[in-house]
Amino acid sequence: MNVLINRAIQCFLRDVWGMGVWCDVARAAGLSPRGFEPLLDYPADLTHHLLAAASVRLNRGRDDLLEDLGTYLVSHPSRAAVRRLLRFGGISFHDFLQSLEDLPARARLALPELALPDLRLEHPAADLFRLSIAPGFIGAGPVALGLLRAMADDYGALVLLEPEGMDTDGAAVLTIRLLDATHGEGRAFVLGAL
Amino acid sequence: MTTFPFELCPEALLRLMPMHLALDHDGLILSAGATLNRLMGEGGLVGARFADHFDLRHEAGAATVPGLLATSGARLQLGARGRADLAFRGLAVPMGPGEGALVNLSFGIGVVEAVRRFALTEADFAPTDLTVELLYLYEAKTAVLDELRALNARLQGDKVVAEEQALTDALTGLRNRRGLDLAAEVVADPDFALVHLDLDLFKQVNDEMGHAAGDHVLLVVARILREESRKGDTVARIGGDEFVILMPGLTDPAAALTRVERIIARLSEPIDYADAQARIGASAGVVLSSTADGADMTRLLAQADAALYVAKRAGRGRAFLWGPDMAVE
Predict the structure, then answer these.
(1) Does residue B263 belong to any structural domain of this protein?
(2) In terms of residue numbers, what domain contains B149?
(3) Which ranges carry the Heme NO-binding domain (chain A) (predicted)?
């Protein structure tokens, strides 16, 4: 994941907060504002420096930023490819949730170096899902929260998302209550758009 | 062999195979998958004749049920009559003794194009079909390639900048013009000779023996110049076949000319290349900083260049020392 996360943070800061903020954060983290190239590996602790610097610069909690990053990945026009690839997960939000366990394998198909944490989905009640994220990927919980929220919007589903637990090692449990699967219009998705 | 007779209701068949055709023994279409119906348009396929809508590639005249079944379950390649844009792969099996054939079709490799052209959705494929995964992979591949293309463009830009900033000539490893200027700035000894050397007959080598031969000759020239240089000297290639040598510590014109003439003599020896020999030579203009009244590097190079011009005019293989009588641009 390292190959993409730094670049994603860079694009997020640049696209959402502006070039100036990105440059400030990069300098504070000891980086050239030129930033990261996709698909190249960087030292693991760089991500932490980057997030810490962004947190200070924007005066926002790290988890808040990560949640926004998750939303950005799905909803921002510059990340259209990510949103499309996620939408291949199913024709409804319900379907999409059920495909989440396949997400790490799907990611590996796209990019063998892309190691996502293992995901487990339980379905304890008709409208209730519980997503468990395996440890190892710090910040995965908040990112998933933002990403799922944006995906629900994308499908036009009304959901209640809540973190049930988040550990410092990256493990997290999220509950997803599907209140109305067809609450809104959602965004169109056609298979053969490319 | 135990037989295992069972019946499939039409709805089950439709869900299982959205691109199937059930044919009676005469080739009349009894049932057709919804996706196939959508593609072929115009009122649906049921009741029509298979042979009126489909033909078999590579199997002349086999669009009959016996013809289909004679393929014994091998892969079929089918076309749609009058529709050059549609091609299928398929499989035909008998439905029962004397009861016609069940044919299942798919798009094969043309699926990405077909999904786009006919605006197919997930519902057009059976849930077991991996078409959606194939489309996912296609998009993932495209997205990764786009990123890589952008990355390559940035790296290419970096490379151009790096080359501009480099101090060495990429072919010979000698200093380039920038490298020469930098060496001149830091030369500690105020007295030095500056030699501007130009190869004779190099263009002919390039024209007659090819650029690979030309490159080889340049490499040999570079090696000779390195061998002939002394500690503290700087050798630079500043143009296609132009070289400059900075020789610190030289104030004696005769000594400078002796060194340069020795270099020219070595450069005039034939150079082996493949089964042939390249013959070049060199002319040189030399200027001594001690005779130039504190002229700067640019001026000294212009003086050496003026001396080189005179040397070239005097015939090949000559070295001339700059004198005040020589015009300087």
Answers:
(1) yes
(2) 130-165
(3) 4-152
